[in-house]
Amino acid sequence: MADAIPAILLIIITIFFPPVGVFMIAGCGMDLFINICLTLLGYFPGHIHAFYLEYIYYDRREKGRMGQLTGRSAPGVYSENVQRGGLGPTTYGTI
Question: What is the Cα–Cα distance from 61 to 55, expressed in whole angstroms?
Fold first, then answer.
């Protein structure tokens, strides 16, 4: 329940401007750059990418808390923060 309110706020922010939602979970890096490009090329591709990153982030976070997180990387995700589900040391900037 503690993750529900931030997740809902993140989804609302992502609906209006996808790069801000990506920045909030991935930081300033390649995922943000890709999302900005996708949003400029078409509003919906930016949404799809942003919601994919958010799904991976919260899925990895839940699996990490339950001790089921594997070492395999999610395809198409460059941010270590998203790969770890926000667990562990935070690093910003992957460009």
Answer: 10
